[in-house]
Specification:
mainly alpha; 2 helices; ATP binding; ATP_synth_F1_asu; proton-transporting ATP synthase activity, rotational mechanism
Length: 55
């Protein structure tokens, strides 16, 4: 039975996050959004460098 629950998954490896995002996109039949991927990449880079975000 389907239940609506929210799930938070935190990755420490951007390549694993990208792979999981692609798999979920294919399962949900949603097209990949390049802008969202670039924003997530931008945030990951700044988190790893520990610099403030200037968005």
């Amino acid at each position: 039975m389907y239940r609506e629950h929210h799930t938070l998954i935190i990755y420490d490896d951007p390549s694993k996050q990208a792979q999981s995002y692609r798999q979920m996109s294919l399962l949900l039949k949603r097209p990949q959004v390049a802008k969202l991927i670039w924003e997530m990449f931008f945030i990951c880079i700044h988190v790893f460098w520990k610099e403030p975000l200037n968005i």
